[in-house]
Amino acid sequence: MSGPKFVVSALAAAALLAGASSRLVAQAGCSARNTPNLIYPGDPRWALDKNVYPAAVNFADAAITGTNPRSGNGSLELSTTGSLFDWAFFKRVADGGAAWGLLSDVNCLTFDWWRDSYTIPPNLPPLLDAALNAETWQEQTPVLRLLVRDVKDNQTVFSHLVWERWYNTRNAGVVPTENDQWHFENLTGQQLWRHFDGGLSYTNAGCVNTGFSGSDALQTYDIGGWVQNCYSASAEVYGIMIGVGSMWPGDYHAFLDNVQLGFNGQDGFAVEDNFELPVSAVPEPGSLALLTTGLLALSGAGYLRRRRPPRG
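Predicted structure:
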């Protein structure tokens, strides 16, 4: 085969291979990687959310910094101060009020996290000492929230499916976080609890939404379980949040990076974001050496001209 027909056939084959490759990424690429979508400070796709307790002072913070780079020169740095009202999340929603895909089609949900080591001060009040030594605090990771929109009784309802590591290890005894190191976390098949009505109530056993009555009372399922038991088939994912805080009893310092969210039937990922800092226009060392040599040469030439005796 030769000529134009061969070129057309080759291009068609390449297009098919590219499409198949993209689908394989979405289906089988749910693994640790340096995600390609670089998010710099001020990117409008991600916004700081600190509004869970609007009437309270909130000392928590979340910002893209170069303090502890993960994939490149930056990551998302987060902190709380021990105030129970501290809350700081980075939030991204689908463009134009749309959704990224159906909740039932989520096939990849991952991020990378780091928790700084900490010490518990001596001679604390008994209640605070107990809180900082509790299993929940020893195992406290940063938090991911999947934002879900559904229709119930002809009304649109909003909820958050929330991942925290303790809900996946609570039956294994005390399993403290391994601090001062990066972790890749694949949440796709893990247990999540639910904030209902956009966070106004909590879901307990039987998909009953009520006030908070304790962490042990919260219903947990993996994503498939939530779809099967508490959502309709049309429930859709419209946003994602990552952060720290809400009734956390101690100082907490963490970093996040490389957020991934993918869906069956879609090419690539809906979210594949890497928090970075812009690279400043600083010359490379080799360029600096050449520049310095050139400046010295020009300076020497000027000196020689000044030293040359006048003519005539």
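Summary: The domain at 35-275 is CATH 2.60.120 (Jelly Rolls).
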